[in-house]
Write a structure and sequence with these properties.
Elements (H helix, E strand, L loop, with lengths): L2 H12 L8 E11 L2 E6 L1 H11 L5 E10 L2 E12 L2 E14 L2 E9 L3 E2 H13 L2 H15 L4
Parallel strand pairs: 1-6
Antiparallel strand pairs: 1-2, 3-4, 4-5, 5-6, 5-7
Length: about 150
């Protein structure tokens, strides 16, 4: 839809959010990740946050873009390697454009999945129902929490 969204996608792939120039100075990043939600305000702070998500070159394994009023929905399946461990994630960004820049990005990310979890998910795809897989994920998540 816009140059700003094309630049955003290029920055995801190249881990080039520092000084990317695609966010408005007063932009809002509204993020939902597993068990948490937070917001980040301002172009520089948003670029720092997004750069922390993807520490290096990232492969865009799958991308779907859908025009919407005032912006675009961008679905990304990403993969990368950190400390020789492969990772992947699945994200959805609802991006609103104002004056040619990203004014708002509502983002959902399923989490960063390391190789062992990716293998477990691949195995689950072949023989588990969605509800059984979701139940296992909830149980795994509950058991991994540290309680004070």
């Amino acid at each position: 839809m816009t140059d700003a969204i094309d630049q955003f996608i290029a920055a995801v792939e190249s881990a080039g959010f520092t000084g990317s120039g695609v966010f408005a100075d007063d932009a809002l990043l509204d993020v939902t990740i597993p068990d948490w939600r937070f917001t980040v305000r301002g172009a520089d702070a948003i670029c720092r946050e997004l750069a922390a998500w993807l520490p290096g070159r990232t492969n865009i394994d799958e991308i779907h873009r859908f025009a919407m009023s005032g912006g675009e929905a961008v679905e990304l399946s990403l993969s990368w390697e950190a400390a020789r461990i492969p990772y992947a994630c699945h994200q959805l960004h609802l991006i609103r454009i104002k004056d040619g820049l990203i004014a708002e990005d509502k983002a959902w990310c399923g989490g960063h999945w390391p190789a062992d979890l990716l293998a477990e998910m691949a195995g689950a795809d072949s023989h588990l129902s969605v509800s059984t897989g979701a139940t296992r994920a909830v149980e795994r998540n509950r058991s991994s929490r540290v309680l004070a």
